[in-house]
Amino acid sequence: MVYQRRPAREHAAAHARSGKLWHADDRSDIRLVGWLMLRIGGVRRVKGGTSGVGPTTSGRGLTGASWIEDSPVRWRVTLIIVILIGGCGTTTEGVDTPGGAIVTERIDLPPPVAAGGGSLADALSRRRSVREYEPMPLDLADISQLLWAAQGITSSAGQRTAPSAGGLCPLEIYVVTGRGRYHYDPYRHQLEVLGEEDVRRELSRAALSQQAVEEAAAVFVLAAVYSRIEQKYGDRAERYVKLEAGHAAQNLLLQAVSLGLGAVPIGAFYDDQVQRVLGLPSDHEPLYLIPVGHPAK
What we know:
It contains 8 helices and 13 strands.
């Protein structure tokens, strides 16, 4: 299996060529709460496109500038400051990701299959915790489907496959395979490359040496960022985040069944060691390790 990677400079160039302040996928499920326009002189019409100052995006904020034509011989500048907030922020290559790493390339995931397949009742009746796997990798299409099932975008408004308190989306998903470490970007449905080393053995040691973690084709890691919802929900924030992790994990487990794969949710591990192995910042608390693979015969 060969991953198709898109270099950061190619993605950034495509963004710049669009002539837009932001892309549609950049603003999914992000709430526009206000913008401030500082004007110098009168404004009659906006001259098409942008000039001089290109658009920039980073995490949850965006700034840009458009040139304003006031008369044939005079120019005025309108500075537009756009403030975007929301727990479900996006990232751009070359900047800090939610995982705290610098992303230099991305892997485009195959589109998820949102219809068809087996029945939910069938998946529920066949779900079992599977801890032994065949030594073979997952197809990229399977990884795509599993990530989408857990936290995929299902509407133009940015709604996801799993419910989230206040739509604030405090979960981040990481994937560990024999090829490296990745962070899932649900807005672009892409994997952000965080490293190309195989850390499954180290991750297994952090999980009390459970063999399923080391032998699985892929380990999906659900991490919580409590700060995204604490301001709104206060003391109940932790409860809501952990409920959401359960929703996302069950979606992933049932999707694994429908794909003919085996999986097991694991909660026994040392948080700080998992954070160190994956390179997570201190405010990203790992909640679940979910090894997935082809069940051993």
